Amino acid sequence: MSPNADAPLLSIQGLSVYYAQFRALHGIDIAVAPGEIVSIIGANGAGKSSLLKAIVSQVDRIEGRILLAGEDIANRPTPAIVASGIALVPEGRRLFPSLTVEENLEIGQQIGRKGNGIVLDEVFDLFPVLRDKRRQPAWQLSGGQQQMVALGRALLADPRLLLCDEISLGLAPAVVNDLYTLLLSINRRGIGVLLVEQDIRRSLAIASRFYCLLEGRISLAGRPADFDRDTITRHYFGS
Amino acid sequence: MIATYLNLIVQGVLLGGLYAIFALGLSLSVGVMRFVNIAHGDFIVLVSFLLLVVAAALHINVLLALLLVIPLAFAGGYLLQRLLLQRVVGDNVLLPLLVTFGLSIIVQNGLLQGFGADTRTLSAGRLDTSSLHIGSLYVGVLPVATFVLAVVLVLGLEWLLYRSRIGASIRAVADDVAAANLIGLSSARIYAIAMGIVGVTVAIAACFMGLRMNFDPTSGPSRLLVAFEVVVLGGLGSLRGTLLGGIVLGIAQTLGGQIDGAWQVLAGHLVFLVIFLLRPQGLLPRY
Predict the structure, then answer these.
(1) Please, are residues A214 and A43 in contact by the beta-carbon 8 Å criterion?
(2) Which among A30, A103, A121, B276 is least buried, having the fewest CB atoms inside 10 angstroms?
(3) Is A120 on the interface with B (CB under 8 A)?
(4) Taking CA atoms, what residue in A is nearest to B188?
């Protein structure tokens, strides 16, 4: 199938994810338009991380289709998926501790799309604090700064779609505010964002649409403004 | 008396250079891929035979043959990792041991079948016997060249690992394989490149071992033992440590050999055991 300009950036159709005998997702449909921020919310174990891992082909087995700009990328090897324009900011950041900040960022360039996308200097413009720490080992940075490196690494892969897994986890509220502001400026570059969060309020504030997952199924979907807090909470916890 | 011992220590240091070259490949595979290649010594012997064949077939100097064999050794290491060893790297440390143990048996018996049990040696012409006269010291050109090469290799590999892009990828995978795979950095490809680099060091070791010492199809395990002691002495994952470990072992063996010929190898093992007891993390540990 050839890439289609009218197709959504990401279109997931009937996706089920299996770990051995366990089924983590049950035939879900999700779409992200080019340049859109879409939020995935849900409690622990709802299947949010499984969704992101399925998109980058890091789960045991899937059923269903995953289309990037109309092209089926399901079951391709992870490096091929990343090279076609999807970058993951993994839960817990997963930086390489013995590499310097700059080396961690350059890993992004190696795994990413080959073209004249974003360069190192632009990432340092987005995260000026990293410029001074570029020669330091990544483990010496604060949690928030490490999260910036993880974001920068994904950005340097020149993605069309950025997958963010719990980027606010374990960070101080002020730091999270900064990160979300940065996420908006990343999005303004035309990069679509699929945001997985447990923190409903913050992620719904910047998303144009959201999906709420409950026990591997979509329990609610739409625009954040269309639902009141109670409705969302009810579908979040399933009571 | 002092001149004798000075001479012995210099000879020991130079021998240590050769031992370090033996061990560099093992140091990389232990430090980066976190597995012990039991067939490391046999691979060195295998490539020594290959050099013998290439030099004889093309009627060229063995050093020229080495230049031809180096790309082959890279490809061999790359393919071996990609097609075989990659299947067994992971959480189970026993599997790579068993597979490389099997490879060791295959290589030894294959060589016996193909070349017989005769003892061989490589020759680089005049270089074999030339010597330098410095003060009261006589040193062979070949051992000096080997030592210089060992230093150059250590510095070159350090540059590759700590200054180059591919080196950063190799360290990233060594840091956290799962994270590398998760973000799309193919650990299988990086491991294969690292094993290709190991192959290059194996080829260089094969050449300079063959010029310096006799070898036969079953010499591999004793080479592995030397390489293993050197890596552990130096400290896992440290290339400079590997050079230092080689030097310590070389000096110990040379001094031991002076006491009694039979003590040469034993003295090396004893020094290894003593240092291992006092400093199990090695002389220059990285981890």
Answers:
(1) yes
(2) A121
(3) no
(4) A79
Instruction: Return all residues near B233 (Cβ < 8 A) that are at least 6 apart.
Output: B241, B244, B245, B248, B249, B272, B275, B276, B282, B283
Question: With bands split at pLDDT 50, 70 and 90, how would you rate the model's confidence at B262?
Answer: confident
Question: Is there a contact between A12 and A64 (Cβ–Cβ < 8 Å)?
Answer: yes
Confidence of residue A4 (pLDDT cuts 50, 70, 90): low
pTM, full prediction: 0.91
E strands, A129-208, in order? 161-165, 192-197
What does the block give as tokens for B70?
């180096």
Distance CA B227, CA B27 (A): 8
**Which among B165, B171, B186 is the nearest to A79, CB-wise?**
B186
Q: How many CB atoms lie within 10 A of CB A210?
A: 23
CB neighbour list of residue A196: distance below 8 Å, 6 or more residues apart = A39, A40, A48, A49, A51, A52, A163, A164, A165, A166
| Mean pLDDT score of chain A | 92
Would you call B184 and A153 a contact, using CB atoms and an 8 Å cutoff?
no
Q: List the single residue in A83, A94, A110 with the smallest CB-CB distance to B169.
A: A110
Tokens of B181: 């795979």
